[in-house]
Amino acid sequence: MIRSESLKKNQDFRVVYQNGTSYANRLLVMYVLKNQHKKNRLGISVSKKVGNSVVRHRLTRLIRESYRLNETDFDSNLDIVVVARAGAKDKGFHEIESALLHLAKKHHITGNEHDKEISD
């Protein structure tokens, strides 16, 4: 399996924001854009409005771990940017993971969705 990389450059984030599709729930906003790479690239953004650096880094770790554990369910060749909302500040791992998977289903980028469509 090909592991995902991180989106690091501001320009890469901007391209996904401007050209990608977005869905949101109470905790997260997810932008998705097809890329030319053979793997997914994940970018995580947590604003200072959400909390201090401890809170922001904690949310970043929770989102990254949620994605890592479910990485095999995601389609490939995608740039994914996840933006944490202020409501996510006090939430635990399972709530963040649930919100991430909910948005992935809305975007139709989880393998589970495609398996069901193929079998129908």
TrEMBL record:
Task: Report which reactions are catalysed by this protein.
Answer: Endonucleolytic cleavage of RNA, removing 5'-extranucleotides from tRNA precursor
The protein's name in its UniProt record = Ribonuclease P protein component
User: Function, please?
Assistant: RNaseP catalyzes the removal of the 5'-leader sequence from pre-tRNA to produce the mature 5'-terminus. It can also cleave other RNA substrates such as 4.5S RNA. The protein component plays an auxiliary but essential role in vivo by binding to the 5'-leader sequence and broadening the substrate specificity of the ribozyme.
Matching Gene3D superfamilies: 3.30.230.10
Spell out the InterPro entries in the cross-references.
Answer: Ribosomal_Su5_D2-typ_SF, Ribsml_uS5_D2-typ_fold_subgr, RNase_P
> What are the alphabetically sorted keywords of the record?
Endonuclease, Hydrolase, Nuclease, RNA-binding, tRNA processing
Class of enzymatic activity (EC top level): hydrolase
What is annotated about its quaternary structure and interactions? Answer: Consists of a catalytic RNA component (M1 or rnpB) and a protein subunit.
Q: Which family does the similarity line name?
A: Belongs to the RnpA family.
Task: Give this protein's Gene Ontology molecular function annotations.
Answer: ribonuclease P activity
Q: PANTHER family annotated for this entry?
A: RIBONUCLEASE P PROTEIN COMPONENT
In the Enzyme Commission scheme, what number(s) does this protein have? 3.1.26.5
